UniProtKB/TrEMBL annotation:
This is histidine kinase. CDD domains: HAMP, HATPase, HisKA. It is found in: Cell membrane. It comes from Bifidobacterium primatium. Its main location: membrane.
Length: 617
């Protein structure tokens, strides 16, 4: 039985073969709709894969491709090296083999040759086979011969140029052939054709011919198979190791993104207080986390502001409706009463009373509507022109005169403001004791303080404070009004955005202490109106700037208050980027503090005696 196997013949002259056919001038064919849908489906499926899976898959594909290219390159290199060594051996030892045919036959008979054996076929000058003196024999009586040109034909073979040809395997009938022997016999051959000449003797003439000398490439195939198995085993181990390490590394790398994802899910559920865990800002994730946290802070701040604005609007509409209903009901009631009693005796006197009540209710309603309009305009950023010059010392002096006109028996003192307390002791009713830092009134001359602002609105602020003192404190309780310019180290801080609480006032006082010790800081106009009346509890002071808030509603209506005065004062001060606070007066009472930033180019304030208001003991 004869088999033909092995590698395709290479290195031989090219034979003409069937030519390929092609089409010229073809045009592209439009994709079928089903193909487009299939592509879209594949894209959607890929988009549904997680990022970590995509990264791991990309790494594995790159490793697989790189490993395959390296294995292919190594196989080609080893194959070329072995073929080159075989060609060198054939070229250099062809003459020795021809001259040692008898020795090779004898060695072959004894089976002392190695796995790579020579095959020799002798032909005459016309390429007719004359003999095959050396044919390697393998185990299991298997014979492997190279496929050579037929007898009498050169087959286009070039002399002294090795080429590769397939093997023809012959096996004995009825014998069991091992797989190893069959693989060895099926290995291709490397063949070289050389000319040879046999010198004749006295009886035999000299002859010439062609000798085909071949060596089996089984060693090369065996080496390539070992290399392939090695790369396969190592490649599988590397793929497993790379999969584990890539999974751990990518999971570790994407852990901040997963945290961001969980934080985003919590925020989506309504928890705006969540923040992305910080990371070094020199990394992409760290920069993203920082940007997201800033964005979340702004969103949360805006959301809370919107909530507060909505709540204030609801409360404002409710309170305004309630406050307007009272004077409207009074007007409507007295008008109906007048209609009912105008035919009775004494109708004229009752009409005068009704008209008087109607006038009072309409006056209250007009005042309420005016205050509401003022608040609405300031909420919209209108109604305050801060591009004017406002002389606070004149406003304070005029307000003191107004209060003196309302309450002639009240003692009113004017002066300045300074930062006191801290390490300095203050004298109290119990003796000398240390007091925390605070703003203290210093009686004396009033400084000329001019700043950039709306004098009408600032006058309204002081008037509302003075009006509260007139309505809610005894007419004989003393009042102090002070104004000074105080430097404070509050860089890049907008007082208008700070809450009107004692904490904000303490922060300003601490900044003023820092400025006093360092000699630097921005200048602020500080105005205080101090009364020694009944004062207000802490909870009430926290609500004093809320709209329509009155500690005693019945007394407020009796005194003509609307509950909007302090809200208007707060809005006006905030429009000037300032701060207004209500704090407890030492030894009882209420202190209103107004702090407004001075322009940087404003000159220093100078003492003046023009701001002293008349005072009556």
């Amino acid at each position: 039985m004869t088999l033909v196997g092995g590698m395709a013949q290479s290195g031989t002259p090219a034979h003409p073969g069937a030519g390929g056919s092609g089409c010229a001038g073809t045009r592209p064919v439009a994709a079928h709709p089903q193909q487009v849908k299939k592509g879209n489906w594949l894209t959607h499926r890929l988009d549904a894969v997680s990022l970590s899976t995509k990264l791991i898959s990309i790494i594995l594909v790159l490793l697989l491709v790189s490993g395959g290219i390296i294995a292919f390159a190594v196989r080609q290199l080893v194959s070329a090296y072995i073929i080159d060594k075989t060609d060198t051996q054939l070229s250099r030892q062809s003459t020795l083999v021809l001259n040692s045919i008898s020795e090779l036959q004898q060695s072959d008979n004894f089976g002392t040759l190695g796995l790579i054996d020579y095959y020799v076929q002798i032909r005459d000058s016309d390429f007719n086979i004359t003999s095959t003196p050396v044919v390697p024999k393998l185990s299991d009586n298997v014979i492997s011969e190279p496929v050579l040109p037929v007898s009498g034909s050169s087959g286009g073979v070039e002399f002294n140029k090795p080429y590769t040809t397939a093997a023809r395997v012959q096996m004995s009938s009825g014998g069991d052939v091992s797989r190893t022997s069959l693989q060895m016999a099926s290995a291709p051959w490397r063949v070289i054709a050389v000319k040879w000449k046999m010198n004749g003797n006295g009886t035999t003439p000299a002859t010439t011919g062609v000798a085909f000398i071949a060596l089996s490439l089984h060693d090369m195939q065996d080496t390539l198979a070992i290399i392939t198995k090695y790369f396969l085993v190592v490649g599988i181990a590397i793929m497993v190791f790379a999969t584990v390490m890539a999974t751990l590394a990518i999971d570790r790398t994407l852990l901040p993104l997963k945290r961001i994802e969980k934080t985003a899910a919590k925020i989506a559920n309504g928890d705006l207080s969540q923040r992305v865990p910080p990371a070094p800002e020199n990394t992409e994730v760290g920069s993203l986390s920082s940007s997201l946290n800033q964005m979340l802070s702004r969103i949360e701040h805006s959301f809370h502001e919107q909530q507060e604005t909505t709540e204030k609007m609801k409360r404002f509409v409710s309170d305004a409706s309630h406050e307007l209903r009272t004077p409207l009901a009074a007007i409507h009631g007295y008008a109906e009463l007048y209609k009912m009693q105008r035919e009775y005796p004494g109708a004229l006197e009752r009409a005068d009373q009704a008209i008087d009540h109607i006038e009072k209710s309409s006056t209250r309603m007009a005042s309420l509507v005016e205050d509401l309009l003022s608040l609405a305009r300031m909420d919209e950023g209108r109604g305050v022109n801060i591009n004017q010059k406002a002389k606070l010392h004149e406003i304070v002096a005029e307000s003191a005169e107004d209060l003196h006109a309302l309450d002639p028996g009240r003692s009113i003192r004017l002066g300045g403001i300074t930062v006191a307390g801290g390490d300095a002791p203050l004298v109290s009713g119990d003796g000398t004791q240390p007091m925390p830092a605070h703003l203290a009134f210093v009686p004396g001359k009033v400084e000329n303080v001019t700043l950039q602002g709306d004098p009408a609105r600032l006058r309204q602020v002081i008037t509302n404070i003075v009006g509260n003192i007139h309505r809610y404190t005894p007419a004989d309780s003393p009042v102090e009004m002070g104004i000074s310019v105080v430097p404070a180290s509050l860089h890049l801080v907008d007082l208008g955005k700070m809450p009107s609480t004692d904490v904000s006032l303490d922060q300003f006082i601490q900044a003023a202490q820092v400025a006093a010790s360092t000699g630097s800081g921005r200048r602020y106009a500080v105005l205080q109106v101090i009364d020694h009346g009944p004062g207000m509890p802490g909870k009430a002071r926290q609500k004093i700037f809320e709209r329509f808030y009155t500690a005693d509603p019945s007394r407020a209506r009796e005194k003509g208050g609307t509950g909007l005065g302090m809200a208007i004062a707060q809005s006006a001060v905030k429009a000037h980027h300032g701060l207004i606070c209500a704090s407890e007066t030492f030894n009882g009472g209420l202190t209103f503090t107004v702090i407004i930033p001075m322009p940087e180019e404003a000159p220093q304030a100078s003492p003046s005696s023009d701001g002293v208001a008349p005072a009556k003991a």
